[in-house]
Specification:
Blueprint (H helix, E strand, L loop, with lengths): L23 H17 E2 L2 E2 L2 E12 L7 E2 L2 E2 L2 E11 L4 E6 L7 H18 L7 H10 L3 H7 L11 H21 L3 H4 L7 E7 L8 H12 L3 E5 L7 H15 L4 E5 L6 H11 L6 E3 L7 H10 L4 E3 L5 H10 L5 E2 L8 H14 L3 E2 L7 H13 L6 E4 L4 H4 L8 E2 L2 E3 L12 H7 L3
Helix pairs in contact: 2-5, 3-4, 3-5, 5-12, 7-8, 8-9, 9-10, 11-12, 12-13
The chain binds magnesium ion.
Length: 434
C-alpha cells in the first residue's frame, strides 16, 4: 500500500537551505508551523484523520415491498458505509458499492478499506483529496504518479479497489465541506440552481399495469419524468415495446419516459427495440447491451435517434473516456459509490462536457452516495436531472436523519455543510454485518 506522504515535513532534516532567517532553521520551522496551524486546526485540534471505519450494511426488504427484475427478486439492499473521523472532531461519511444485495463482495470491500486503506489514511490531512485519491489508486508507485503527473495504477485499477476509494473520497469531501462550513456543491464551483428536476425510477409492471404503476409515481412526487425497466425480463423486444406503448398512452405526450434494459440485450435486439419504440419519444434508452460491449453501444446509438445512457457500472474517468471516444453514449451515469467518488465524477463530468454529452448520475443508492451525486449534478455544467428510486430503498429513506423530499418533481440542492447526510448510529448498528 502507499507509503508516500509528502507534506508531513515542513523542512526535512538535511534539506538544503533555500533561505537564511534570523535564528536559522529552527526559527523558520517554528514560523512555518505557526502559519500552518492557522489553517490546519479546528479549535485546538489538528485536521488529521484519526480513524477510518467501514461497515457492511445489509438491510432486508419486506416481502410486500420487493420487486422482481432480470436481477431476480430484490430481497435486500446492501452497501458499505464509510465513516472517517478527525482529531478535531469532524466526521465524514461515504458509501461504497460492490453488488446490490451481495454479502460476500461487500465484506471484501469493507475489509479492503479497514485493513489496507485505513492504516495509510490515519494521520493524513483529509483535505488533501487529490493526493490521497492518487495515492490509493497508484499504491506503492504513488510517488511516481504524483511526481510525473500521470497514472501508475496497481492491479486493482477497477472493481472493489475503485469502489473503496469512492466511499473514502466522498467522506473526505464531506469533511472538507464541514471544515469550512459550506456544502460540497459550493466547493465544486457552486450550484446551477436551488432545485433540480428528478425522475421517478421504477417501472417493472406488465403491459396491463405499467401505466397505473408509473402514474402512481407521478402522483406521489409530481414527477415530470419516469423510467421503466425493459429488456430480457420481458423475453423479447416486442413485449418490451408493448409495455412502452402502454406506458406512453397512460402518461400522455408531455411527460418524459426513459427505458432501462440493465445491459441485457444483444446489439440486434437492442436495435430492434429502438425501431419498435421510435414513435414513443423516449428521453433515453439506458444500458441497451452489456457494459463490456462498448462498440455494441456505439452500434445501437448509430442506429437510432433515441439518446443512449450508460455508465452506472463503469470505473474511473478512463472507462468514460472510452465511451466518449467510441461515440457510445449521449448521457453519462457515473455511480458515486462505484466510479471513484466525487473527485472522479467531476473528471467524468468534464469529459462529458468536452464531448457535448450530458450527465445524469446513477442515484439508486444509499443517502451518502445519493447526496454525493446530487452535489456533482448541481455543480456540473453537464448535469440536468436526478434519479429518485421508487423501489424499496431503505438506505436512502431510513439510514440518515435527513431526507431529500420531492416536490413538484424537483429536489432541493441542500445548504447543509458537507454532503448534508447524517447516518443514524442505531440503524447502522442494527443492520451492520458482524
Ligand atoms: Mg440503470
Amino acid at each position: 500500500m502507499p507509503n508516500f506522504s509528502p507534506g508531513k515535513l515542513i523542512i526535512p532534516p538535511g534539506a538544503p537551505h533555500l533561505f537564511e532567517e534570523p535564528g536559522g532553521r529552527e526559527a523558520a520551522n517554528r514560523e512555518s508551523a505557526l502559519c500552518l496551524s492557522r489553517i490546519d486546526r479546528q479549535g485546538d485540534k489538528p485536521v488529521k484523520i484519526k480513524s477510518v471505519n467501514a461497515r457492511s450494511v445489509h438491510v432486508p426488504i419486506a416481502p410486500e415491498k420487493q420487486h422482481s427484475s432480470d436481477f431476480g427478486r430484490a430481497h435486500s439492499f446492501a452497501a458499505t458505509i464509510v465513516r472517517i473521523d478527525t482529531e478535531c472532531g469532524l466526521t465524514g461519511w461515504g458509501e461504497s458499492k460492490s453488488q446490490v444485495g451481495g454479502v460476500a463482495q461487500n465484506r471484501a470491500l469493507t475489509a479492503l478499506i479497514n485493513e489496507e486503506m485505513a492504516p495509510f489514511l490515519v494521520g493524513e490531512d483529509p483535505r488533501d483529496i487529490t493526493r490521497l485519491w492518487e495515492s490509493l489508486y497508484n499504491g506503492s508507485r504513488a510517488h511516481h504518479a504524483l511526481r510525473e503527473g500521470r497514472v501508475f495504477p496497481v492491479l486493482g485499477r477497477r472493481g472493489i479497489t475503485i469502489s473503496a476509494i469512492s466511499g473514502i473520497d466522498c467522506a473526505l469531501w464531506d469533511i472538507l465541506g464541514k471544515s469550512l462550513g459550506v456544502p460540497v456543491w459550493r466547493l465544486l464551483g457552486g450550484r446551477k440552481a436551488q432545485r433540480m428536476p428528478a425522475y421517478a425510477s421504477g417501472g417493472w409492471a406488465g403491459a396491463e399495469r405499467i401505466g397505473e404503476e408509473l402514474l402512481s409515481y407521478v402522483e406521489a412526487g409530481g414527477f415530470g419524468a419516469v423510467k421503466m425497466r425493459v429488456g430480457i425480463m420481458d423475453g423479447e423486444p416486442r413485449r418490451s415495446a408493448a409495455r412502452v406503448a402502454a406506458a406512453r398512452k397512460a402518461l400522455g405526450a408531455e411527460r418524459k419516459l426513459m427505458c432501462d434494459a440493465h445491459g441485457t440485450w444483444s446489439v440486434a435486439e437492442a436495435k430492434r427495440f429502438c425501431r419498435l419504440v421510435e414513435e414513443y419519444d423516449l428521453a433515453w434508452f439506458e444500458e441497451p447491451v452489456t457494459a463490456d460491449d462498448k462498440r455494441g453501444y456505439a452500434e445501437v446509438r448509430a442506429s437510432t435517434s433515441i439518446p443512449i445512457a450508460a455508465g452506472e457500472s463503469e470505473f474511473t474517468r478512463h472507462d468514460f473516456r472510452d465511451l466518449a471516444l467510441l461515440s457510445a453514449a449521449d448521457i453519462f451515469q457515473p455511480d458515486l459509490a462505484i466510479c471513484g467518488g466525487i473527485t472522479e465524477a467531476m473528471r467524468i463530468s468534464a469529459l462529458a462536457s468536452a464531448f457535448n454529452l450530458r450527465l445524469a448520475p446513477h442515484l439508486w443508492a444509499g443517502a451518502p452516495a445519493f447526496a454525493a451525486g446530487l452535489h456533482v449534478a448541481a455543480a456540473s455544467p453537464a448535469g440536468f436531472i436526478l434519479e429518485y428510486s421508487l423501489g424499496a430503498n431503505p438506505l436512502l429513506h431510513e439510514l440518515a436523519e435527513e431526507s431529500f423530499p420531492v416536490e413538484g418533481g424537483e429536489i432541493e440542492i441542500p445548504e447543509r455543510p458537507g454532503l448534508g447526510v447524517t447516518p443514524r448510529e442505531e440503524f447502522l448498528a442494527r443492520y451492520s454485518l458482524p
